[in-house]
């Protein structure tokens, strides 16, 4: 028998008052992506017929963050409980569908877990549970003599004996849409919260003879909900640990300390790559073979070629780094930077919108912006490109084999031809011909006895 079509309802109407934030709770981030984004990422591999997101007051910000055409947005004008929330979406779901209910503040559930939950509900009802050492605050799972779920009792409504049960409700469940519509109509608010509990549908299903099958999650972190900053931080660490383990296991990445690694995007690595402590990876980052990343480094939306080494305390954003480059320590590569094979960018150097040729070196205390630097160029310490005239940016062109002395100011637009030498301390405003020496120095005047006179 083929499986019925699947519709997914995501409960995302919680106010999140305990977050104490102007940002809606479901838009709080875990590993650089919103919690709702994580939930949708886990839901889509199930190939549902539809995804309905329930939002409440202030949902405009949530909708704006997800312009996805496959999402159906449903406004819950009054927050009257989970049962009421699901009821708002049911008019858009045919009776023949299975309904998978997810929570937007439970961001770490894996697609495989959801697939198992849906499969177990064919036919019938399934419920995702987990066993906790400390179940306080959660609804307890009640089982019948056959081991099936007979009901769920919330913490505030539970008897002392029921409160000793360690198996709890995660809020994730799968039910047939037609009977669910009937069960929701029978809900009432005669409970400690004064709300319409979706969980009361479980007891109704059991009483009607439906098999309510529990699917027990083996990892409590996978179903951890988030209501405050402390829980958000705990989920962040759990997610980072999961990502670190996957990178080490699946891609062979070497991590000096997996507990001090943060991935806020996607990372692909070649063979024999290593990342030291407290590195942050954001956006899409790709490392070739034998790449080494030093401690306290941030990489965002960049590629690093094989054999490249990034030393400590570097910041690299939207840059393309070639093979066998050496960067840092304390270097900043801003968007639009490209380094060719064997280029060197050293300590306290900033590069922006610049192409640095093969084997060229900018080793100390320099700023190179809006520049085209050829191969085997040496840029001395303290060199800056003066690329901005207060209104427009201008380009500095430096051809192959140029030597630029220390403390030099290159006032763009400027072209230094191949093989030229720029003397230390020069402020260069005019183009320099190939193989020429450009020097800008005033005559040094010495005044004998100056120090003695000052002491007097």
What are the key terms here?
456 residues; alpha/beta; Spore Coat Polysaccharide Biosynthesis Protein SpsA, Chain A; UDP N-Acetylglucosamine Acyltransferase, domain 1; 2 domains; 11-stranded parallel β-sheet; 8-stranded parallel β-barrel; 9 helices; elongated
Number of domains: 2
Spans of at least 5 consecutive residues whose pLDDT stays below 50 are none
The description of the largest β-sheet is: 11 strands, parallel
Total of helices: 9
Mean pLDDT comes to 94
- CATH fold assignment of the largest domain: Spore Coat Polysaccharide Biosynthesis Protein SpsA, Chain A
- Report the sheet-strand fraction: 25-35%
Tell me the span between the first and last alpha carbons: 106 Å
Gross morphology:
elongated
CATH class of the largest domain: Alpha Beta
Read across the widest sheet, the strand sequence of neighbours is 12-14-16-19-22-25-27-29-32-35-37
Level-2 CATH architecture of the largest domain: Alpha-Beta Complex
Helix content: 10-25%
CATH superfamily of the largest domain: Spore Coat Polysaccharide Biosynthesis Protein SpsA, Chain A
SS-based class: alpha/beta
Would you report the number of β strands?
37
Rg calculated over all Cα atoms: 31 Å
Catalytic activity: N-acetyl-alpha-D-glucosamine 1-phosphate + UTP + H(+) = UDP-N-acetyl-alpha-D-glucosamine + diphosphate; alpha-D-glucosamine 1-phosphate + acetyl-CoA = N-acetyl-alpha-D-glucosamine 1-phosphate + CoA + H(+)
Organism: Spiribacter curvatus
Protein name: Bifunctional protein GlmU
Cofactor: Mg(2+)
């Amino acid at each position: 028998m083929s499986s019925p079509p699947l519709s997914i309802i995501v409960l995302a109407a919680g106010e999140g008052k305990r977050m104490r934030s102007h940002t809606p709770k479901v838009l709080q981030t875990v590993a650089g992506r919103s919690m709702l984004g994580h939930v949708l990422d886990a839901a889509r591999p199930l190939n549902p017929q539809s995804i309905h997101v329930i939002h409440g007051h202030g949902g405009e910000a949530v909708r704006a963050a997800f312009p996805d055409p496959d999402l159906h947005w449903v406004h819950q004008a009054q927050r009257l409980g989970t049962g009421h929330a699901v009821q708002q979406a049911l008019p858009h779901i045919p009776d023949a569908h299975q309904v998978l209910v997810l929570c937007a503040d439970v961001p770490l559930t894996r697609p495989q877990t959801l697939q198992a939950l849906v499969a177990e509900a064919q036919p019938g009802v399934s419920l995702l549970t987990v066993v906790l050492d400390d179940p306080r605050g959660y609804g307890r799972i009640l089982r019948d003599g056959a081991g099936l779920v007979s009901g769920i009792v919330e913490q505030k409504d539970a008897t002392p004996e029921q409160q000793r049960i360690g198996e709890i409700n995660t809020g994730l469940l799968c039910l047939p849409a037609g009977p669910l519509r009937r069960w929701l109509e029978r809900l009432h608010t005669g409970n400690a919260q004064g709300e319409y509990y979706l969980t009361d549908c479980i007891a109704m299903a059991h009483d009607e003879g439906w098999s309510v099958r529990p699917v027990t999650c083996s990892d409590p972190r996978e179903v951890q909900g988030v209501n405050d900053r402390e829980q958000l931080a705990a989920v962040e660490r759990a997610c980072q640990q999961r990502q670190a383990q996957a990178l080490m296991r699946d891609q062979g990445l070497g991590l000096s300390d997996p507990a001090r690694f943060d991935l806020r995007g996607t990372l692909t690595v070649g063979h024999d790559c290593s990342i030291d402590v407290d590195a942050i990876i954001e956006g899409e980052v790709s490392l070739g073979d034998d790449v080494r990343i030093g401690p306290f480094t941030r990489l965002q939306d960049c590629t690093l070629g094989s054999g490249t080494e990034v030393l400590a305390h570097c910041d690299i954003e939207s840059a393309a780094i070639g093979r066998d480059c050496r960067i840092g320590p304390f270097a900043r590569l801003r968007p639009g930077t490209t380094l060719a094979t064997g280029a060197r960018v050293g300590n306290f150097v900033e590069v922006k919108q610049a192409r640095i040729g093969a084997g060229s070196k900018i080793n100390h205390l320099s700023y190179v912006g809006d520049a085209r630097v050829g191969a085997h160029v040496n840029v001395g310490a303290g060199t800056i490109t003066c690329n901005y005239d207060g209104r427009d940016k201008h380009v500095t062109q430096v051809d192959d084999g140029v030597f630029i002395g220390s403390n030099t100011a290159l006032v763009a637009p400027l072209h230094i031809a191949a093989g030229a030498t720029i003397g230390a301390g020069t402020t260069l405003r005019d183009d320099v011909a190939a193989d020429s020496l450009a020097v800008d120095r005033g005559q040094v005047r010495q005044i004998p006895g100056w120090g003695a006179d000052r002491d007097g």
